[in-house]
Specification:
The structure holds 2 protein chains of 2 kinds. Chain A is mainly alpha-helical. Chain A is built from 11 helices and 2 strands, in the order H-H-E-E-H-H-H-H-H-H-H-H-H. Classes of the chains: A mainly alpha, B alpha/beta.
């Protein structure tokens, strides 16, 4: 266990070396949330209801979604495929430490660093927009926490899956960019997914994207009935198991193809 | 009498890569969008060898000969296409922690030190990863730091260190768990001659002190000559030679070098009768003479001319290796 604690400490230290990068990265996240909140504030000017949401409801939604995005979608593994392709992971693979465990710690250190900033940013946004966020009961908090954690793990597994691209091709950024764009529109970052037509929603819920933040936001706002909640938990668990199996298979296959490039 | 199993056993080890070959020109690039031709490249071709505990082996070959690929297979980084490997009784690509705790791979051009943090942080991380007991860690660290004289730099950011200081710290990071088997891939690459010598001395000392089994690849023949009694030469993935370094010289060195200093200038045409004249400068000359005739030629020269100094030596190992590879290439072309 001590190896993972030591590793966590090093990733933290490493992340604090480039202060400007860290601050600008967080500023980008802050701007993104600020823009979404501003756009919806403008849309509601002179209107009480839009797409079935009132001003307070929409601002609360965007506020919670922004918080979740920073938590669930923040990852240190964007360049994993490139690290695999370039052979950068070779030294790690020769050491008696679990490879995925190491990546999980890297991701966790990144998320925990982000969390500190998220609270400061959210505080600022709260002062600017003064959203009325109905605070749920303990049980909802727990379910929200569970689903947010599952969403973070789901995103981690998908990041690992993108990492496997590096075994087979040097072209690792194209698919990742496409993923970013799709996530922007389908995870509920810019707007709540329930404003979309029924058919589109049905299609979206066949994918893992709504489980990155939309579902969790709805849980927080207590919009689901118990059967709906159970259904979402089961679907998310299904995605986690299915993608984990696929990930395990692809990494095993990839390791056989691994060229450990470089001298 | 019991015979100890070799630390490293390699049988018919083969690695074939599929390499993409792009057609030249713009159209070739466009065509590559829908059709790419791959062709097989045999990097390592049915290699066999055993290495006993405590041996230091020089792995010699030109660029692309398959040296690093072999080391990567022995480290469990690459899956072989076929063949078997046993390192300390383990199958390397099972990547068992018990195996990984007993070996180290040092690649001269790959860092394990954290670039933005001092080397000490990497040492502490390796202490945790390899589960090195506190007392053992401090004892080994002190010993290695002293041997390599880097006490003043291990708390300085890695990126601020010179290449030589970094390489020394890389070695420490790799050896803190006192591995039984050490794969050193070009450990002296890019270092100046003084630093090369320091690293060589250190490797020798480590081998003697810990009885480690070492495979060393290097383009600097001085590394091989000074550290290894045995050499394995590979060419285009195939093992060409495996034996004592002296035996390699006997087998492949065609000539000896006669360095002569005369009392007066001797015409070039007279000297050419004894061998190939490599250099001629006033009263000094260097001749390449077939090995078997070297003593006889020296004796004849001494009889015919007044010579103030004569020296018979083996050609540098680089020249021998060059001849070996030139021979192989010529044979392959025929």
């Amino acid at each position: 266990m001590s190896k993972y604690i030591q590793l966590f400490s090093l990733y933290w230290q490493n992340g604090l070396v480039y202060r400007t990068n860290l601050i600008l990265w967080r500023f980008r996240q802050f701007l993104s949330a600020l823009m979404a909140l501003t756009v919806w504030s403008v849309v509601f000017t002179g209107q009480e209801q839009v797409f079935g949401y009132d001003t307070g409801g929409m601002i609360a939604y965007v506020f919670i979604a922004s918080f979740l995005q920073s938590l669930v979608l923040a990852t240190a593994l964007h360049g994993l495929a490139q690290r695999v392709y370039s052979g950068e992971v070779s030294m790690l693979l020769t050491k008696p430490i679990n490879f995925f465990g190491t990546l999980a710690i890297e991701d966790l250190a990144d998320k925990s660093r982000n969390i500190l900033f998220i609270f400061v940013e959210m505080g600022l946004l709260y002062l600017l927009f003064m959203p009325t966020i109905p605070l749920p009961g303990l049980q909802t908090w727990l379910i929200f926490g569970l689903l947010a954690s599952m969403g973070a793990v789901l995103h981690f597994i998908i990041s690992l899956l993108f990492g496997t691209l590096g075994f087979f091709s040097p072209e690792t950024w194209g698919p990742k960019f496409l993923f970013f764009v799709i996530v922007d529109f389908t995870a509920g970052k810019l707007f709540p997914l329930d404003i979309l037509p029924e058919v589109v929603q049905k299609i979206l819920f066949l994918t893992p994207f709504p489980y990155f933040s939309f579902v969790q936001t709805q849980v927080f706002l207590e919009k689901y009935t118990q059967p709906e909640l159970l259904n979402h938990i089961l679907v998310l668990a299904g995605w986690l198991i299915g993608l984990s199996v696929l990930n395990s298979w692809l990494w095993k296959k990839g390791m056989r193809e691994y060229t450990a490039a470089g001298h | 009498m019991t015979t100890q199993q070799p630390d490293i056993i390699v049988r018919n080890l083969t690695k074939i890569f599929q390499v993409y070959q792009k057609k030249s020109g713009l159209w070739g690039s466009i065509e590559s969008l829908w059709h790419r031709e791959h062709y097989p490249v045999t990097a390592v071709d049915h290699i066999n060898f055993d290495i006993q505990r405590g041996e230091v082996i020089g792995f010699i070959g030109q660029n692309g000969a398959g040296k690093t690929t072999t080391l990567k297979m022995l480290s469990g980084l690459l899956y072989p296409t076929s063949g078997k490997v046993s390192v300390l009784g383990h199958n390397p690509w099972d990547r068992q922690p018990e195996f990984q705790k007993q070996f180290a791979l040092v690649m001269g051009q790959k860092n394990q030190l954290w670039w933005d943090l001092p080397p000490m942080e990497t040492f502490l991380l390796n202490k945790a990863i390899y589960e090195i007991p506190e007392a053992h860690f401090h004892k080994t660290l002190d010993q290695l730091v002293e041997m390599l004289d880097v006490g003043s730099v291990i708390r300085v950011q890695t990126r601020k260190l010179s290449l030589g200081q970094r390489m020394k710290c890389e070695l420490i990071a790799s050896l803190l768990h006192t591995p039984q088997v050490l794969f050193l891939d070009e450990p002296t690459i890019g270092l100046d001659v003084v630093m090369q010598k320091t690293v060589r001395d250190f490797i020798k000392q480590y081998n003697q002190e810990f009885g480690a089994t070492i495979i060393l690849t290097s383009h600097y023949m001085e590394d091989v000559q000074e550290l290894c009694k045995r050499a394995i030469v590979i060419h285009q993935g195939k093992k060409m030679f495996d034996g004592a370094l002296n035996q390699l010289i006997d087998q492949y060195a065609r000539n000896k070098i006669l360095s002569l200093t005369f009392d007066k200038t001797i015409p070039q045409k007279d000297l050419k009768k004894f061998g190939t004249l490599k250099s001629h400068d006033a009263t000094a000359a260097t001749l390449l003479v077939p090995r078997r005739q070297a003593t006889k030629a020296a004796s004849q020269l001494l009889q015919q001319y007044t010579i103030s100094d004569v020296n018979i030596e083996e050609p540098p190992i680089e020249a021998i290796i060059r001849e070996v590879f030139a021979d192989q290439s010529n044979q392959a072309q025929k």
